[in-house]
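INTERNAL TRANSFER SHEET
From: sequence group
To: structure group
Subject: Putative fucose ABC transporter, permease component

Please process the attached sequence and return the structure record in the designated field. Keep the field labels unchanged so the import script can parse them.
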Amino acid sequence: MKTTMANIQNPASQAQQPGQGVFAAVKAKIFHPATRQKLLAFASLLALLVFFSFASPNFLEIDNLVGILQSTAVNGVLAIACTFVIITAGIDLSVGTLMTFCAVMAGVFLTYWGMPLYVGVIAAIVFGALCGWISGVLVAKLKIPPFIATLGMMMLLKGLSLVISGTKPIYFNDTEGFSAISQDSLIGSLIPALPIPNAVLILFLVAIAAGIVLNKTIFGRYTFALGSNEEALRLSGVNVDFWKVAVYTVGGAICGIAGLLIASRLNSAQPALGQGYELDAIAAVVIGGTSLSGGTGTILGTIIGAFIMSVLINGLRMMSVAQEWQTVVTGVIIILAVYMDILRRRRQ
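Return from structure group:
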């Protein structure tokens, strides 16, 4: 009875409870470690944009911004592929040379064999998925550590690209519509003030699809579970090897898309290109909040990380910083990103 009377006498406190509950939920969401990491990454991106806009008067020119978007599209798609693998507590060092290999295979189908455009597109994605499947089998079935397995695939694919192409670029000059994949602007044709390349549109479509797969499907749940506690997942009766191979296969298919984007951008398949792209992709993933220990990560964070890497590299070039120092900066960023990941894990 006392409780009832107290509630009657203090109706204001009752009215505040729902609002307080919503505020508490929002506060918990904002201060969640994953959310804090994304906010910190986004703030870092804004800070870089402001700094380079003052440091270089040409940084905000339309052509330069379009160039940033183009480079982010390729690195962002590769980073999405890496995100799937890293969430499982794995690593894929072959994404850069796999991208190049898929571009070369597209060149074989389109330029050497004269196949229709859609056949070349499908071939690039299928060969990417096949190579990803091989990496997955090496890791899941043969129990080779991911670092060693994908390092071997990186060298193997680099060699195959050079052998198949005869160490020469394969040009797509006679393939109608190929350059439009990356360089044209569907959005620009509708809104002339926004000449956003198709490559960026493809990046966001891939990101949306990847986000849905990770958060709304059984594939995504098992991907996170593999990184959180693989043994517990195995004891629950799940075919761990099958899902691990599937993750690497999906990552490989996404690398095939990246291969199409960079080949379309250059209007050629450059067989010597690719090695080194994996470092930028992995850095983007870690900067975006995906843990190298597995079990956590978001596609949104990865996209923000990809933009940070592209803006940083482009800004350093605009400031005429030597290429070797750009590499030094990239290495420092990777080390700092991994250290921040270690600190986050300790706090949790």
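Handover comment: The chain has one domain: 40-347. The chain has 14 helices and two strands.
Transfer complete.
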